[in-house]
Amino acid sequence: MKTLKLSVGILTLIILSACAQMNASLIAPKGIANNDHEALVHYYETVAEEARSNLQKNKRILAAYEARPYYYGRRGLDLQSHTSANIRAHEKTLQESLRFAEFHKRMATKQRDDSINKAKVRSGPKLALDDLE
């Protein structure tokens, strides 16, 4: 009997963990290579702009809810808390995407500088045998 309860508990835990949501605040974009930093900068800046516009929209909605709570009745508090949660989520997405965009800007600059330095080394002056003596 104890074995049955234990196995049912473990099976339930496995099923629940398989169905759990992953933290998908900023998922890596598909179709962009990991070393294409300029495309990643563009992607994360676009995500940041979308988050900024959604944030402004939700702030206007929250201001409307707070200005006239009597319009919304009992659901007003639910709407306010839901909008506040959306604002927090958009702020988090905005901060993360700006952080990732800044990181990839630095990586793109470094990658560009490295490729320029490699090109200079390859096309540098060739030494003749007379120069070595």
Rg value: 27 Å
Catalogue the unreliable spans: none
Give a count of the beta strands, DSSP E runs of length 2 or more: 0
Mean pLDDT: 83
What's the order of the H and E elements? Answer: HHHH
Structural class: mainly alpha
Taken from the alpha-carbon principal axes, the silhouette is: flat
Brief characterization of the structure:
This protein has four helices and no strands.
Q: What does this entry look like structurally?
A:
By secondary structure, the protein is mostly helical. The protein has a domain at 37-114. 76% of the residues lie in helices and 0% in strands. It is built from 4 helices and no strands. Helix 2 (37-67) packs antiparallel against helix 3. It is flat, with a radius of gyration of 27 Å.
Task: Summarize the SSE layout with pairings.
Elements: H1 2-19, H2 37-67, H3 75-122, H4 129-132
Helix pairs in contact: 2-3
